């Protein structure tokens, strides 16, 4: 039984949204991918509403079982963090109102899950996303590939158990944590099996890491 | 003709919401003030939904003409900024969907407008809010007084012209600016008159500044 996950790479100018179906054997299939945009000459509230409208339309169309969101960290550019945090808040609200579990994953968790290497660059992530989904070319722009990577990462990390996402999101409240979330202790046997499979895949993934 | 402004002091644990009616002669009347709360043991998406529900109920009940929000700045505690930015995003979305203008004001702008002194402390702001609104005691907790201060500040700074708030929000997109927003060049004659009145009030306000 496949799990359908919607991944969001949050942003005010470009917000990547990817939907994948992931089978228990880790096979992943592309359902849809779009990059929502809002014009920079609109005020922030209207930009947020524009992105929110697009997000709701995609949720309505594809009805995912879980939402995976990039965990936002402090970066050098304060205005970027604010826009990203605002979009994240809006995405969380929309998911919560549809009673969808929301999980947060850091960029390094996503890179590690997808490429086997937590410091992989965008080209490596894009190439692995294309390979995992059996696409002929890398999804562009990077926000699209990142959103798909988030969705795949989430399905792989949780073993496709949509409900498991809730505790992950809870441990990420405030988005101030770093590294892995240390929730291993609470894993079900099925999740532990997934985790083992993920680790094995990560090792082989590292060995065959895509060259640019 | 009074303008009704809803002020929001954004926060995930406590979100102050104050509604005031402000007359063209700067007289302000309390309409309502509440502090919305969300339990820390809920995950962030549900906490945002809890606050959003409360905010929508107040908007529905009091139908303000404008929303004033505190402009968020980088502070030492990253998790606080994130929660505040997420709530701000949610508040902006809700306002935008009701086609309400949203204005951002910095804490020092609010303090300057209310007490005449941009570095006033919370007790001074609370005491002035109580005096302006003719209340027998200072609204508690501080989030309640801050939300009312934001609403009064907004009405005073814009001369009660709800439409003027849009350009203010636009100049604040990204919430990364500091100080006054330098929009003086775009003021209408009515707004210039208000600004002059505000400056006069700020001077006398500074002179009679409330002691603790």
Automatic annotation (TrEMBL), chains A, B:
Mg(2+) 1 binds at residues 9, 143. Mg(2+) 2 binds at residue 70. Its cofactor is Mg(2+). One of its GO terms (biological process) is DNA recombination. The gene is ruvC. InterPro entries: RNaseH-like_sf, RNaseH_sf, X-over_junc_endoDNase_Mg_BS, X-over_junc_endoDNase_RuvC. Binds 2 Mg(2+) ion per subunit. Its EC number is 3.1.21.10. The RuvA-RuvB-RuvC complex processes Holliday junction (HJ) DNA during genetic recombination and DNA repair. Endonuclease that resolves HJ intermediates. Cleaves cruciform DNA by making single-stranded nicks across the HJ at symmetrical positions within the homologous arms, yielding a 5'-phosphate and a 3'-hydroxyl group; requires a central core of homology in the junction. The consensus cleavage sequence is 5'-(A/T)TT(C/G)-3'. Cleavage occurs on the 3'-side of the TT dinucleotide at the point of strand exchange. Pfam families: RuvC. It catalyses: Endonucleolytic cleavage at a junction such as a reciprocal single-stranded crossover between two homologous DNA duplexes (Holliday junction). It is found in: Cytoplasm. Belongs to the RuvC family. One of its GO terms (cellular component) is cytoplasm. The keyword Nucleus does not apply. Keywords: Cytoplasm, DNA damage, DNA recombination, DNA repair, DNA-binding, Endonuclease, Hydrolase, Magnesium, Metal-binding, Nuclease. This is Crossover junction endodeoxyribonuclease RuvC. SUPFAM superfamilies: Ribonuclease H-like. NCBIfam families: ruvC. One of its GO terms (molecular function) is DNA binding.
């Amino acid at each position: 039984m496949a799990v359908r996950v919607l991944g969001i790479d949050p942003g005010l100018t470009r917000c990547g949204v990817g939907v994948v179906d992931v089978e228990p054997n880790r096979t992943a299939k592309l359902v849809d991918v779009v990059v929502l945009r809002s014009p920079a000459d609109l005020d922030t509230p209207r930009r947020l509403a524009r992105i929110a409208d697009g997000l709701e339309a995609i949720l309505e169309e594809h009805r995912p079982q879980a939402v995976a969101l990039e965990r936002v960290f402090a970066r050098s550019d304060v205005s970027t963090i604010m826009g990203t945090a605002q979009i994240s808040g809006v995405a969380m609200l929309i998911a919560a109102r549809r009673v969808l579990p929301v999980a947060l994953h850091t960029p390094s968790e996503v890179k590690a899950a997808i490429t086997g290497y937590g410091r992989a660059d965008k080209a490596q992530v894009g190439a692995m996303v294309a390979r995992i989904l059996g696409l002929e070319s890398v999804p562009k722009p990077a926000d699209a590939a990142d959103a798909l990577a988030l969705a795949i990462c989430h399905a792989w990390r949780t073993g496709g158990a949509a409900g498991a996402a809730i505790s992950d999101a809870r441990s990420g409240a405030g988005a101030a944590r770093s590294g892995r979330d240390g929730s291993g202790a609470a894993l079900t046997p099925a999740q532990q099996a997934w985790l083992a499979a993920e680790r094995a895949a990560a090792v082989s993934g590292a060995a065959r890491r895509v060259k640019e």
